[in-house]
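tokens incoming
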């Protein structure tokens, strides 16, 4: 489903060069739930952003499904991302002056779909994460765990084949973290969604199919 070949990422500023990723080779099978761990600054978010086509590698190739991505332009990349990928970030990235249901609808705006259909799908996604009773709230009126569930609903509303999650339980207490983890495991088991999750929590990582460890930009296991 995901194939990375010899991925290298160098960040350059006027004074320093940081080798954030160093020849990463990684394949993720369809339906796999993979976790990525490693110390702060080792390149986890960089790797996830590259898999998610939000950032381009300095060198190397990425294929998602049958699609090679190297030659795609910005618009094609955006359309491809919108259709295939769902993102969940540690700090939720919700829009505070939009109601919950409108936040969840956002990925559908780029598809030809009536407002009624969008609302229907957003409501269903919110039901899946147990938030049907909060659809007209604003994000600031929700707890952290509820916000993260809104972010998950937004990630799944377009039925992406792949979900990329960057420390989705990082800001939550362990009970809420477990709940979020259950939702992700459920999506993986029941809908066959491929998931790549960055985490610093060994317990969460051990619930997934496979763990990749990074150190200083290199894969160590
Ligand atoms: N935009 C950038 N410009 C320059 N250097 C960057 C940039 N983004 C990240 N880096 C550097 O690349 C390295 C990897 O960063 P990254 O954010 O991927 O780490 P991480 O493993 O996600 O860390 P954390 O666990 O703290 O989130 C770090 O050394 C960081 O300083
Ligand atoms: Mg990070």
């Amino acid at each position: 489903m995901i194939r990375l070949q010899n991925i290298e990422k160098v960040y350059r500023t006027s004074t320093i060069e940081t080798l954030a990723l160093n020849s990463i080779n990684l394949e993720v099978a369809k339906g796999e739930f993979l976790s990525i761990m490693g110390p702060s600054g080792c390149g986890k978010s960089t790797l996830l952003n590259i898999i998610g086509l939000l950032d381009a590698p300095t060198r190397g190739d990425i294929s998602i499904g049958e699609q090679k991505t190297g030659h795609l332009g910005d618009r094609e990349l955006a359309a491809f991302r919108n259709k295939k990928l769902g993102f969940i970030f540690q700090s939720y990235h919700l829009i505070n002056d939009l109601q919950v249901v409108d936040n969840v609808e956002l990925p559908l705006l780029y598809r030809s779909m009536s407002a009624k259909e969008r609302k229907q799908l957003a409501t269903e996604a919110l039901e899946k994460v147990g938030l049907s009773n909060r659809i007209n709230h604003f994000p600031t009126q929700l707890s952290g765990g509820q916000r993260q569930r809104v972010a998950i609903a937004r990630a799944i509303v377009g039925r992406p084949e792949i979900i990329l999650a960057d420390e989705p339980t990082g800001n939550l207490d362990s009970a809420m973290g477990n709940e979020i983890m259950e939702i992700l495991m459920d999506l993986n088991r029941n809908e066959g969604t491929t998931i790549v999750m960055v985490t610093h929590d060994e317990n969460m990582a051990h619930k997934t199919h496979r763990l990749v460890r990074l150190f200083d930009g290199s894969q160590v296991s």
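note: Residues 44-45 surround magnesium ion (ligand 2) (CB under 6 Å).
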